[in-house]
Amino acid sequence: MGRVTFPERAAEIDLDALRHNIRHLRDVAHPARVMAVVKADAYGHGALPVARAALEAGAAWLGVAHVSEGVALRRAGIEAPILAWLHTARTDFTAGVEHGLDLGISGWELEHVAAAARELERPAIVHLKIDTGLGRNGCPPEQWEALLARAVAHQEEGLIRVVGIFSHLAVADEPARPETDLQVQAFRAAVTAAENAGIDVEVRHLANTPATFSRPDCHFDLVRVGLGIYGLSPFADQASEDLGLRPVMTFSTTVANCKEVPAGQGVSYGYAYRTRKPTTLGLVPVGYADGVPRIATGAPVLVGGRVYPVVGRIAMDQCVIDFGTTGLVGTPASPLGERAVLFGGSDAPPVEDWAAAAQTINYEIVTRISDRVERVYTSREGGDGTGS
Ligand SMILES: *Cc1c(COP(=O)(O)O)cnc(C)c1O
């Protein structure tokens, strides 16, 4: 790979790492197959290049939340099965059926989907979702028999084809918790009820990333993995490499300004930080409009092989690091223009350090990196994932 010329603000997406993660997850889940979850613009990594690379590496399915996300992938030429599971009364079910998306059904959506299928004279592909305890979407167990009966009736009429039964886990990132056992039991019961109702269930799926690693009894026929394909760990006590994963996103910019200041210099809005001795401040030109959480003061930034903390308030467009020394400005050692890596890559802080500083999880940090940050796709292996 030739050295990439980085734009001013870059989220570098390592598609080799992504393909590695998919292949690794395929091994972990085997013989179950892998659904690569690419909702929310692939957790901020770019839905289309990620979808293409994931399929190249052997993902069998794609998963999205919204029908519109699935339709966008179809319009870009993706032909693999795509499941969309979060709908509203305003969802364009007709577009979903027309584009051959698989649709997750928790209850009320079934009639909308059947109506769309009737209008298009094309059967809708459906996965029925049981709420095994998460308490969000999914059919409550006491309404499951009724949903099955309606689904069977529509299937006999040729309006739908039920190919899957699925559910979502609540506490799989804490493998010792007993509630997952109850969810597995409830799931098995729901599958049995579907089979007894005469449904030929092709794919049963329950596992997310944490359950794929920690609960082989949740694998069934298909695992729905999001976080893991991006190379990140869902567990508090295990890092990416402990799971055999490689982080995919590296978020970087360049030091935009560099200046010496005296002791007592207030830094950024509110003067939440004042220098204690003469020092050099570096301006890092990313802020909360770029997806850098405003509360993450203290989070690390790698410049020239060393890590420096963000000091003072993070603003909309920028934040400041303290180099802790003087005598740099105007010398060859000046960090002005140096690459500043917030997270990702081999020597830089892991995204989990930013998550900790922001009191959140790695999922949220990568997903919220904004459009102002250019995605740069790198790939050594065949296929650059951009389809060009
Ligand atoms: C987002 C999502 C997933 C993926 O979860 P990860 O923890 O990122 O693997 C799987 N299933 C459903 C229903 C989801 O909403």
TrEMBL record:
One of its GO terms (molecular function) is pyridoxal phosphate binding. Its EC number is 5.1.1.1. Substrate binds at R136, M316. The modification N6-(pyridoxal phosphate)lysine is found at K39. It holds the Pfam family Ala_racemase_N. CDD domains: PLPDE_III_AR (cd00430). It catalyses: L-alanine = D-alanine. Pathway: Amino-acid biosynthesis; D-alanine biosynthesis; D-alanine from L-alanine: step 1/1. GO terms for biological process: D-alanine biosynthetic process; peptidoglycan biosynthetic process. The active site is at K39 (proton acceptor), Y269 (proton acceptor). One of its GO terms (cellular component) is cytosol. Its cofactor is pyridoxal 5'-phosphate. The keyword Isomerase applies. The keyword Transferase does not apply. InterPro entries: Ala_racemase (IPR000821), Ala_racemase/Decarboxylase_C (IPR009006), Ala_racemase_C (IPR011079), Ala_racemase_N (IPR001608), Ala_racemase_pyridoxalP-BS (IPR020622), PLP-binding_barrel (IPR029066). Residues 248-378 form the Alanine racemase C-terminal domain. Keywords: Isomerase, Pyridoxal phosphate. Belongs to the alanine racemase family. Catalyzes the interconversion of L-alanine and D-alanine. May also act on other amino acids. This is Alanine racemase. It comes from Arthrobacter pityocampae. The lineage of its organism: Bacteria, Bacillati, Actinomycetota, Actinomycetes, Micrococcales.
